[in-house]
């Protein structure tokens, strides 16, 4: 354990101990105005003050933008990975303390405050792994520890964007005092299912732009994985959407039958995802499940007119996503994985993922308490739907920007023509070439290779920062 006796290691340990001790003091300090909250209420009547707004904006900047960007830079082993993550860490730590120093609206015990500690613990673990790997201690017992740190750094780094997204959702819920008591069940249903639609849209975007090499290596079609998840989710919905032993109501029946058709259709989709010779085959099942789910949700009974309209738009959007997915597979791609020869997707292929993003935001924004807030404020469903579509465009844009950053920096060098300077050729759609297995391996190793020593990470043409290239646009 000789590495832990080094002055840098000791300094790191003292720094982390100081941060954790200060955090405990800040949390204790943040509870001094709890008497401003009336009995039975989730929060005080005070408005959000400037410090709390700064906390929100800085957390969104660090965990929503900087860390995901740094993650991609780590995957492609770009030399800007470490500076980007350091910047995000500094902003996140400052924002964390600001969240306990505000004087405005006070909150009772809530999931956002509890989950924040876990998120910050993940950040501390990630920083410790990163610093330890940068010391390049490989002799003796540290060789085994290094392997654990390498895998741990990758797993935590990949999980952080998802965990941060959940924490930001918790923050919005807490700020408005939603999802408590009798509203908890429907609130969970909306946010979990809405988040799943957004996640599915992101996965489709990834597979469309940079995941075809990995998909080909699995020997499965996209519909195999989609149908398997649909079947599993349908089984869960079948037995959880009704409180067994109590009376059935209209919504229970609709939710349960929706679960039944999901697992029935999912099993059919799994069966149709292979040809007779065992090779992968595309099919219409996932798109049809999305379409019929949208049809069912468009007629879901609601108590408020604005809620009825928002659910109707959500249903139509989801129906459009399913229909466009069927058209993409059957008529645009003609059952092929991709038709592009220049490394980009067909323009029509962007429609189904985007509509899934929009469907997710519409469903997440259609809870009972949100609809009552809109109704009381006199805001029409048209204005609200346009705002939610705007959010969908922003997430859609940011996802494509991150995938572009990955693609242009992970593509192999192209042999130059006579008199031309060597350049990189972006491969957005993952066509199978000699470098496909390497690209898949780079993605799986995440941001680890850039932290290894020179003997562990030999120079390759695609290693930015090692070959003096600076492209990271």
Automatic annotation (TrEMBL):
Residues 1-28 form the signal peptide. This is Integral membrane protein. Residues 415-473 are annotated as: Disordered. Residues 164-406 form the Protein YTP1-like C-terminal domain. InterPro entries: DUF2427, YTP1_C. Pfam families: DUF2427, Ytp1. Residues 37-136 form the DUF2427 domain. Keywords: Membrane, Signal, Transmembrane, Transmembrane helix. Residues 444-457 have a biased composition (Acidic residues). It comes from Venustampulla echinocandica. Residues 433-443 have a biased composition (Basic and acidic residues). It comes from the Eukaryota. The chain crosses the membrane at residues 52-73, 80-98, 118-135, 155-176, 188-211, 284-301, 313-333, 345-366, 386-407.
């Amino acid at each position: 354990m000789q590495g832990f006796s080094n002055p840098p290691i000791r300094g790191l340990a003292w720094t982390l101990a100081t941060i954790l001790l200060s955090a405990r003091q800040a949390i204790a300090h943040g509870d001094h105005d709890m008497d401003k909250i009336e009995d039975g209420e989730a929060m005080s009547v005070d408005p959000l003050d400037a410090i709390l707004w700064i906390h929100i904006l800085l957390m969104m900047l660090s965990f929503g933008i900087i860390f995901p960007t740094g993650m991609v830079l780590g995957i492609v082993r770009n030399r800007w990975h470490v500076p980007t993550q350091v910047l995000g860490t500094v902003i996140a730590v400052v924002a964390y303390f600001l969240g306990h120093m505000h004087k405005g609206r006070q909150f009772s015990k809530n999931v956002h405050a509890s989950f924040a500690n876990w998120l910050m613990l993940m950040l501390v673990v990630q920083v410790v792994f990163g610093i330890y790997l940068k010391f390049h201690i490989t002799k003796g017992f540290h060789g085994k520890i290094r392997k654990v740190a390498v895998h741990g750094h990758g797993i935590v780094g990949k999980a952080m964007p998802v965990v941060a997204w959940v924490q930001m959702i918790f923050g919005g819920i807490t700020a408005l005092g939603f999802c408590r008591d009798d509203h908890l069940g429907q609130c969970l249903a909306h946010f979990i299912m809405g988040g799943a639609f957004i996640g599915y849209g992101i996965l489709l975007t990834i597979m469309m732009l940079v995941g075809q090499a990995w998909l080909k290596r699995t020997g499965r079609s996209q519909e195999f994985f989609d149908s398997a998840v649909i079947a599993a989710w349908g089984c869960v919905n079948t037995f959880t959407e009704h409180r067994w032993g109590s009376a059935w109501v209209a919504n229970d029946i609709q939710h349960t039958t929706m679960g039944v058709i999901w697992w029935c259709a999912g099993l059919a989709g799994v069966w149709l995802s292979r040809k007779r010779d065992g090779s992968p085959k595309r099919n219409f099942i996932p798109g049809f499940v999305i379409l019929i789910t949208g049809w069912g949700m468009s007629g879901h009974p609601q108590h408020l007119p604005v809620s009825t309209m928002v659910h109707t738009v959500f249903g139509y959007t989801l129906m459009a996503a399913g229909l466009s997915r069927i058209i993409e597979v059957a008529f645009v791609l003609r059952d092929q994985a991709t038709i592009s020869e220049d490394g980009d997707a067909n323009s029509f292929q962007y429609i189904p993922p985007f509509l899934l993003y929009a469907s997710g935001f519409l469903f997440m924004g259609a809870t009972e308490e949100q609809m009552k807030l809109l109704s009381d404020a006199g805001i029409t469903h048209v204005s609200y739907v346009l705002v939610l579509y705007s959010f969908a465009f922003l997430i859609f844009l940011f996802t494509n920007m991150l995938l572009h950053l990955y693609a242009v920096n992970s593509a192999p060098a192209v042999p130059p023509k006579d008199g031309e300077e060597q350049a990189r050729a972006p491969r957005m759609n993952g066509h199978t070439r000699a470098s496909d297995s390497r690209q898949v391996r780079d993605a799986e190793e995440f941001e680890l290779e850039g932290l290894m020593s020179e003997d562990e990470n030999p120079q390759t043409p695609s290693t930015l920062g090692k070959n003096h290239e600076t492209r990271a646009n």
